[in-house]
Design a protein that fits this description.
alpha/beta, eight-stranded parallel β-barrel, globular
């Protein structure tokens, strides 16, 4: 296993980490995307044990996953390892029908932290993240509430997730102006077929010293290799079971990427998913890649991504296959002002 500090912080995390969105009970509810897998306590303990054997030190969840049940199960599974791991959770998504049950107000942030601590069975949360931005609450109020949680010892570091570039910069500016805790990380969707973050989020994070955490590196399982052009969705797959889960935005590009992945996987005697994960790991600015798994077989396969490295030519062939046109103003900046618009670093040997 390799390890990295999140941005400019002192929080060290494993470059492969584990996300517990699949943890839950058959009776659990989930208002986010629906239950994407029901992994109960016994199986969760087995998965966490496999992660620890592989050197994984960061584990991630959210209050909304299975409406709190993911936190309960993860907390129970991590009890033997609590002092040796970093634990992260997230807030802002609806946890009820009341007006105080969501968002980034001081009222909700403080209450949700207390609730997460109780469900996780721990005295502190290593990384407390805002799951989505709240357009309606002043950034100063939100960041001050997070700062108070750090000063109270309930939280060690704070981060954001699924923010746009201007939301993150507004929050960082509020922290800097007030002289309080600032985000150390941004948890973002990133994969071979989800590269939008390269246009704004990643350059902003690199400029501000904010660590980058990638979720969805297999794009909901699409890049695992079980999907084929022109064939029905596999039974039990995420896209078949959860019709509201977003499919690839550009299906033709997605299947072209799969063609290149299969070619490399066959040549290197790896799985398609293994190659897709390794491509993300080769990005020098990815501090940790968050894996999800519903079964032991899936987890064991995904953990193998750290065992090898794509060559630069292989990396570039995937880069080319997955490239999409730049949006404005990135397009015109690169075209007219290229010598003052350096690209972000691409390949990590």
């Amino acid at each position: 296993m390799e390890y990295s500090f999140l941005g400019k912080s002192g929080l060290e995390v494993s470059r492969l980490s584990f996300g517990a969105a699949t943890f839950g009970f058959p009776t659990s509810a989930d208002v986010a995307v629906g239950n994407i897998g029901v992994v109960e306590t016994k199986e969760a303990c087995r998965l966490i044990g496999l992660c620890r054997d592989a050197g994984v030190t960061y584990f991630d969840t959210a209050d909304v996953y299975s409406t709190g049940d993911s936190e309960k199960i993860l907390g129970e599974a991590l009890k033997p390892y609590r002092k040796d791991i970093a634990l992260g959770t997230k807030t802002t998504m609806p946890m009820g029908t009341g007006s105080f049950d969501r968002g980034a107000s001081r009222r909700h942030i403080v209450q949700s932290c207390e609730d997460s601590l109780r469900r996780l069975g721990t005295d502190w949360i290593d990384l407390f993240q805002l799951h989505y931005p709240d357009y309606l609450v002043p950034a100063e109020e939100t960041m001050r509430a997070l700062d108070d949680l750090v000063r109270d010892g309930k939280v060690r570091y704070v981060g954001c997730s699924n923010y746009s570039g201007w939301h993150m910069m507004r929050s960082l500016a509020a922290s800097d102006t007030l002289g309080i805790e600032r985000f150390v990380s941004h948890q973002m969707c990133y994969s071979l077929i989800d590269r939008d973050a390269e246009n704004e989020l990643i350059p902003a994070a690199l400029d501000q010293g904010v660590g980058l955490m990638a979720w969805g590196p297999l794009s909901g399982g699409f890049l695992s290799g079980k999907y084929r052009r022109g064939e029905p969705l596999p039974k039990g797959s995420r896209f078949e079971a959860l019709p509201n889960y977003p499919p690839p935005a550009n299906p033709e590009l997605a299947y072209n990427v799969l063609d290149v992945l299969r070619e490399i996987a066959e040549k290197r005697e790896r799985t398609v998913g293994d190659v897709a994960l390794n491509w993300v790991l080769r990005r020098p600015w990815i501090d940790t890649l968050i894996l999800g798994a519903r079964t032991e077989q899936q987890l064991v396969a995904n953990l193998k991504a750290m065992e090898w490295s794509l060559g630069e030519d292989e990396f570039n062939s995937l880069e080319k296959a997955s490239q999409t046109p730049l949006p404005y103003p990135n397009r015109i900046q690169r075209m007219i002002n290229a010598d003052r618009t350096p690209p972000i670093p691409a390949y990590r040997p």
